[in-house]
Target: 2-hydroxyacid dehydrogenase
Amino acid sequence: MVKPYVFITRKLPEELVQPLRNIAAVEMWDQEEEPVPYELLVEKTKKAAALLTMLSDKMDENIMKEAPHLKVIANLAVGYDNIDIGAATSRGIVVCNTPDVLSDTTADLTFGLLMATARRLTEAAEYVKKGEWQGWSPYLLAGRDIHHKAIGIIGMGNIGRALAKRATGFEMEILYHNRSRQLEAEKELGATYCSFDELITRSDYIVCLTPLTNETKHLFNAEAFKKMKKSAIFINASRGAVVDEDALLQALKEGEIAAAGLDVFTKEPIDQHHPLLGLSNVVALPHIGSASIETRTAMIQLCIDNIQLMLESHKPKTVVNKDVLAQYCSS
Model:
């Protein structure tokens, strides 16, 4: 019996992949950071029954129409804006993601990014390393308080709620905006639902955790930044394209907002000469929201589990387009 072919688009730890080799012919791209060239991904997908993909892998209709055997795409992320879900669903391809397992880890990073930006931690660390610390003054690298301030969370999903829980430890006023009200979060965390405009007007810290959709693309534009407090700090740990980066650059340069902490960018990796990186009031990270050893291992394991379950005609654990399942899965 010929084993189904599975293609993995990054080099992953062999001990995690090995169980999949018992039921499938597995091929892994041999690079840890460099993405698979699109043309090669097209060729590999043509014969694949399953793919384990990264956010940087563009899974569009052109790829899927050339993939007659493809049953499942397991995406190593919560978000799946790199995948054409409509095209996958119309072709009976199950799409899986990795929710829940990374919520706490991403919330840790997001709050850490907020703290680093507010208290100018990366700037201060470089100040010492460069030998610029020659004395003390009352306002030397003075940042802004976090405790007792208002945090506005755009996108109150699992990560948003985990972030709000951390904010309670700093006795912050928690405002949020979401497609639907989260009554449990309001009850347990004291969060207050606001319109988008009210949130960005009132908040000292505006944290973007919303998924990227047609409706949220460039949600944070020039008009939005103009409505924020001049002392406001903007944090983005969702998707880069939710922000108009030109508008953000202008807002920071003109003092419309105080600072920004960014874990994501419209184009990744971001060019080292991008003007945002030249600003001292920007803290930039390389999209590491869920990057703890424990969490990334759990995410990879979940992807492997989902592929195994699909290939054995069982229901995967985390499915995006559940309507497709009936034709494949017995349980």
Summary: The longest helix spans residues 293-311. Residues 15 and 206 are 40 Å apart (CA to CA). The chain has two domains: 5-99+293-327, 103-284. The chain is about 35% helix and 15% strand.
